[in-house]
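User: Structure tokens for this complex, please. No commentary.
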Amino acid sequence: MPSTSREVHLIRRPEGMPVPEDFGVVDTALPDITAGQLRVQNLLLSIDPAMRPRLSAGQPLNEPMSGSAIGRVVQSLNPDFAEGDYVMHGASFREFVNTEGRGVRKLNVDPALPPSVYMHVLGGSGFVAYGGLLAIGQMKDGEQVFVSTAAGSVGSVAVQVAKIHDCYVIGSTGSDEKCRWLTEDLGIDVAINYKKDPIRTALKAAAPRGIDVYFDNVGGAHLNAALPRMNVLGRIPVCGMISAYNNFGAISDPVTTLSNIIYGRITIRGFVATDFPELKPRFDEEMTAWVKSGRVKYQETFYEGIENAGAAIIGMLNGVNTGKMMVRLAQ
Amino acid sequence: MPSTSREVHLIRRPEGMPVPEDFGVVDTALPDITAGQLRVQNLLLSIDPAMRPRLSAGQPLNEPMSGSAIGRVVQSLNPDFAEGDYVMHGASFREFVNTEGRGVRKLNVDPALPPSVYMHVLGGSGFVAYGGLLAIGQMKDGEQVFVSTAAGSVGSVAVQVAKIHDCYVIGSTGSDEKCRWLTEDLGIDVAINYKKDPIRTALKAAAPRGIDVYFDNVGGAHLNAALPRMNVLGRIPVCGMISAYNNFGAISDPVTTLSNIIYGRITIRGFVATDFPELKPRFDEEMTAWVKSGRVKYQETFYEGIENAGAAIIGMLNGVNTGKMMVRLAQ
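Assistant:
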């Protein structure tokens, strides 16, 4: 058993875009575990847009940064955990952690799948997409569906779940390359590069039969463009997982087409993943099968090693990743 | 039986605010009714904001104007109607009408109430207020409720239904006199004169425990002010009955606080009266009892005589009425 663990600390608050000097790698003593404790070796760190605001306020200086991590129990004096268990927890940005198990959740990793998928398509972002469409959006088979940030971790699952339900699916994203991924690999019907084509006219052309469900990740100009296209009794689930951090500005852009909710009897509803716990067992079963069969696809970008965790945050904020950004500490 | 009926025609499309010369009173022959027909004497004509756009487009020239009317069957050769029946129908702006009964609905007028209440508090606007709060807004007893245009035909019923359900009720309206009516006569907790006090700061002060249900009749600045005050899982029913016509501009004003729907998991939902038919029997029973006991109050303004129907429209558009505007043709 190692007697030390390397950790990544925030050592200085960034001004604007973070730089490598804002982060420090610190070697810390790792005491033996005592009765009731377990030791977790972290395998994967999640790198999220939500981390940026915490660097300015919230994340203490000179402490290991917090965030979601997947690890493996390497030693246990706690009856609830056994050596070899996969776990998910919030004590990220360190190689090892001793814990009494509070906030540590066992992960039932399918042996045919890499643990990393529980960070995204089989984790929170996948569940938000699934429940946002089915529980909040009340999506029915064959409906007309529009998803913004369709190539993102939530959006890419949403468009694929909608296609599985035989919907006509329109997605918007910010590059031709992502548009190609959406149409050629994920099989959606129309992909709009909103940076090239004004979303309002592009969406009008892409939705000849209107929109029944708009899965909104961004608000602003996208919501403004979608509202006049909504069919009667249309639904707009508004997802808080990514837009809340990544697109806060966008979603607060003025929206001037709200009168459409009267004529169309439209429902707009903000939600979080805890709004539909009853869907979790069905999600686990269906999504696991879809990912294993390749019917639901995903993209991942890994940085290797704890010493690159700061660089991974900087890279994510600069958009270098394709799909979910993670740091891999061990296999 | 009379052999002629006076009708009001639109004889010229108004430019801007209508003037008396846009309307003409025409004496028309009234043939005897034939088998299957009935003759209705109109008692009350409803004067609505929705009439204004039809004067510019939709209402044919040199024909009796259409609109909602309450009448009494004075002669019937139709087995579905009997002499003396009260009816509601769309053949307004004339003293008498012969009809085969299509679009004519029998009104079950409570003998203790004037028929005019079926034009507002016991009619469409009352039902929209009732169902908007209870079915769409899912209002629970004791919640914090905010209603815009609270002194209007929909809003004034909404605030009173909310008070009956022991809610803390805030209403906004456009004059001190209406504020006094809301607090002193209708018993709401806080009335805001939005023309004197900026709605955003006034609402913040008026809602120390936030807002659970915002019954939105106007959108725009009011919706913008309400969104940051909404409690978690708050509901915003958006009523189409009056705002669609009266405040179209207002509801399309830019809204910049929509990001609150994510954090608060807020639902915004546009609706019309046909969205909750299952509530109609309970509404009829409860609202009839409340109106009879004086627990739900209302205001009415009458113009007298078919020759004043055009003047009533002009008056309504200039805001001369308090409460529901009607033209009385007969008792």
